[in-house]
Amino acid sequence: MSLDTMEEACNKTSDLCSSNLCLQNATCLSSAGNLNFTCKCPAGYNGTTCETAISTCDTNPCKHGGTCLDGLAGPSCLCRSGFTGTHCEMDVDECISEPCHNGAVCRDGIDEYYCYCVPGYQGKHCDLEVNECVSDPCLNGATCLNLIGKYYCICPPGYTGANCELDVDECQSWPCQNGATCHDAPAAFSCSCTPGFHGALCQIDVDEYTCNCTGTGFMGLHCETLVPPCWSQPCYNNATCEDSADGYTCHCWP
């Protein structure tokens, strides 16, 4: 080999890319004179020889505690219960399914909901009717009628009020007449009559009636006097009649 040929061979360097220095099937690019090389890495890798996998979750794109999953196409988020969306950015509205009943208002929460019941209902979904009569609000033997959101007391005679707690004053209507005094009592009243009147309401004037004593053996305004045996003049021929305890005696003329 001539001197010139040997010098030409020494000036030639081998191609570094021929050694497959780039990883992950990256493309190797040699520099001028084959003194250096560059690896053109595929998506998801970097480094001199594409030896480092790029984490797509480094920027933590998932919201509300979602879990980030690496992928060649980019990150994906595994959302916590109650959230949805590409980055778990949206709260799931649990009220969309209308879980609350009987006119209740639904308020959405994080992975839950709250039902605000209208009066008369209770329970998580406001589906249970409240029995307002359980507390026995009606007094004095009244009957409690359970209604939606309220109750009604059916009072016995002589009582009134929302809970039948008030005694009705039967004397307020002034039932006693002719100056009589009224005495109130539970579900009743009585009248104390002034002299000359009688009756339940003192409505009867004593002078407005007469007593028929015929056949009773008594006489007087009120048939209060026993009739004497001689009253009927039982003796004949002008004889004198004398009353006695067991009847009468006729004293005849001679």
TrEMBL record:
Tell me a GO biological process for this protein: axon guidance
Q: List the disulfide bonds.
A: C22-C39, C41-C50, C79-C88, C117-C126, C155-C164, C193-C202
**Keyword set includes Ligase:** no
User: What cellular component GO annotations does this protein have?
Assistant: cell surface; plasma membrane; receptor complex
Taxonomically, the superkingdom here is: Eukaryota
The UniProt record lists the EGF-like domain at 13-51, 53-89, 91-127, 129-165, 167-203, 226-254
One MF term from GO for this chain?
calcium ion binding
Q: Which CDD domains match?
A: EGF_CA (cd00054)
Q: Which keywords label this protein?
A: Disulfide bond, EGF-like domain, Glycoprotein, Repeat, Signal
Q: Which residues form a coiled coil?
A: none
PANTHER family assigned to the protein according to its UniProt record, in alphabetical order: PROTEIN CRUMBS (PTHR45836:SF13), SLIT HOMOLOG (PTHR45836)
Name assigned to this protein: EGF-like domain-containing protein
